[in-house]
Write a structure and sequence with these properties.
Blueprint (H helix, E strand, L loop, with lengths): L1 H30 L2 E4 L2 E8 L2 H6 L11 E11 L3 E2 L7 E7 L2 E9 L9 E2 L5 E8 L2 H4 L8 E4 L1
Parallel strand pairs: 2-3
Antiparallel strand pairs: 1-2, 1-9, 3-8, 4-7, 5-6, 5-8
Length: about 150
């Protein structure tokens, strides 16, 4: 009789814990204000909607050194980026969960009709854009762990 009661109770407890974990992860994605890699943290603007992701950092004439934009995607996938109407060089960092999977270093501005498309050939659910050459200056590389804070 005891085993018949313990098993359903354990399942219910595990479901509750899993639900809290899922809620916490979704909540955190909405509240991220800083992305840290190694000893370097970047205050970020979030691009969560299709419109925000499409606009990105286009038409910006400058970006403070330790700031950037974090693109948050609803699911893990391969996301191509380009520099159309972007006026400043950027490092583009693809992140899968909390690990850097690809970096396009010092991507140059493009005001042409046809701009190069950067394809990571890696799945990701976040992309971080920061000032060009900062990944080199801060020795940030693929496989580095990324921390998100609110």
């Amino acid at each position: 009789m005891k085993n018949k009661i313990v098993f359903p109770t354990l399942v219910i407890i595990l479901i509750i814990i899993f639900s809290i974990f899922i809620y916490q992860n979704n909540k955190n994605a909405e509240e991220i204000s800083q992305v840290c890699i190694k000893n370097n943290c970047f205050a970020v603007e979030l691009a969560k909607t299709d419109g925000e992701r499409q606009k990105g950092l286009s038409n910006r004439t400058s970006l403070d050194k330790n700031t950037g934009m974090l693109f948050i995607f609803p699911e893990i996938g391969i996301y191509n980026f380009w520099m159309k109407d972007t006026l400043i060089p950027l490092d583009i960092i693809w992140i899968n969960e909390n690990k850097i999977v690809y970096i396009e270093r010092n991507a140059q501005p493009c005001l042409e009709t046809f701009c190069p498309i950067f394809n990571p050939n890696q799945t990701a659910n976040y992309v971080l854009e920061i000032n060009g050459n900062l990944t080199t200056e801060y020795n940030i590389s693929e496989a580095d762990i990324v921390y998100f804070t609110d």
